[in-house]
Amino acid sequence: MIEVKSKKSWRPFAGAAIIISVAAIAGQSVLASLNATAFNTAAQNINAGTLKLDLANSGNGFGTSIANVVPGDVINRYVTLTNSGTLDGIGLTLKTAQTGTQTLITDGTGAVTNKALKLTVTSCTVAWNTTTGACTGGTTATELASTVIGSLTSPITLTNSTMSSGAVKYLQMKIELPDQNETTINGALPANTVQGGAVDVTYTFDLKQRLATVTNS
Amino acid sequence: MKKALFLSLVSSLCLSVLPASAGIVGRGVRTHTATTAAWGVSVVNQSGIISNQDYALGFSNNGNTSYDYFTLRNTGNLTTSTFNVIVIQDLLKNKNLSPADVIFERCDGTWNTTTNTCSVTPVQVATGTSSAITVSIPLGVNSEIKMRAQTPNNNRSIGISLRVQVSRSSVRGGQVTHS
């Protein structure tokens, strides 16, 4: 009769574990030595900066809808952007998203000749007079040249795109419906008309953090 | 299972080594609504039905003269300063009839459709041979100009339609506003 002894595969691991444990316990006593520790008595304080872009109405701003626009109308609304964070910002961009009457969003092509709403953004170094549109005592700069509203779905970098912490931008948002001819026959609006339409435009301003820096001090 | 764990590990590593290109972004968002105006004038018949197509005159016999009373109503949302009503002849139908015997009149008071009179003196604005009637009276939103066409009874089957055209220049011009 032959006795078959099965090999226990865990035995070598168990043996190794025992040896390591014994060595560790013994080593602590054998290898003990003197240690010196240095540390800062006052904890180093590290603050992360903040980047906040406030968008506020100046006058009606975006708070009041624009109604009954006819071709040739120019509607100026005023808003104020403030970098109220602690970080300087760069790369100020604007993009829009719009829903509603397509003829007011994109220009017609080919036989369709409708002209859509356009947006121009101008800044003033001081607050605008929202009644007269004057930038009295300040200087103006075109931040965004006249652009069809439907072409702003990708962010466009404004001309003066840096805003240091605390900086304020006074913006005139000029919305216009280009002059164009349409004749209504028997009270029925023509095809591809710009009449009787409605558009919801969402304006998004984004300001990026300043470039990360390496400092030594 | 092992494969899934491996893939998960690789993806985590890849994500962790991506450059911090996004950084912090401050954002300001607002939504704004804009609506556009509309301009238009329609013929409204004596029953109050608004016609959005060419209006074919339909005369009602009343003694020796037949009448068709209708109004021109501003169905847009802007006041019109002037507009045209094109008079369209049905040449085949009118072969043996007389468009010249059709008279268009305006009443600035009130028509009495029983006595066929106007409360003030009516104004003749065109005949059936006119190519168009130009209305140069400012017409507010939902306001109406009271009209009638009349013709001798034996001419009542005449074929004449009216087409109302309001062009861009019929309403206010563009304005610049600040607010």
Low-confidence stretches of chain B: 9-20
What are the secondary-structure elements of chain B, in order, as H or E?
Answer: HEEEEEEEEEEEEEEE
For this structure, the quaternary state is: heterodimer
User: Span between N and C termini of chain A?
Assistant: 83 Å
Strand content of chain B: 35-45%
Radius of gyration of chain A: 34 Å
Largest sheet of chain A: 5 strands, antiparallel
Structure summary, number of beta strands of chain A: 10
| Range of helix content of chain B | under 10%
- Helix % of chain A is under 10%
Largest interface: A-B, 72 and 49 residues
3D architecture notes:
The complex is a heterodimer of chains A (217) and B (179). By secondary structure, chain A is mainly beta. Chain A has one helix at 11-30, and strands spanning 53-58, 66-69, 74-83, 89-100, 118-124, 140-148, 156-157, 168-176, 183-185, 198-209. Chain A is elongated and about 100 Å long. The mean pLDDT of chain A is 91. In chain B, strand 2 (41-45) and strand 3 form a beta hairpin. The longest helix of chain B has 15 residues, at 2-16. Chain B is elongated, with a radius of gyration of 31 Å. Chain B is built from 1 helix and 15 strands. Helices cover 8% and strands 44% of the residues of chain B. Chain B is mostly beta strands. Chain B has one helix spanning 2-16; strands at 25-36, 41-45, 50-51, 55-56, 60-62, 65-74, 83-89, 103-107, 111-112, 117-118, 123-127, 132-135, 144-152, 160-167, 176-178. In chain B, the strands form 3 sheets. In chain B, strands 2, 3, 5, 6, 8, 11 and 13 form a 7-stranded antiparallel sheet that branches. In chain B, strands 4-14-7-12 form a 4-stranded antiparallel sheet, with no helix packed on it. Chain B has a two-stranded antiparallel sheet with strand order 9-10. At the A-B interface, strand 1, strand 2, strand 3, strand 9 and strand 10 of A face strand 1, strand 2, strand 3, strand 14 and strand 15 of B. Strand 3 of chain A pairs parallel with strand 15 (176-178) of chain B, so a sheet runs across the interface.
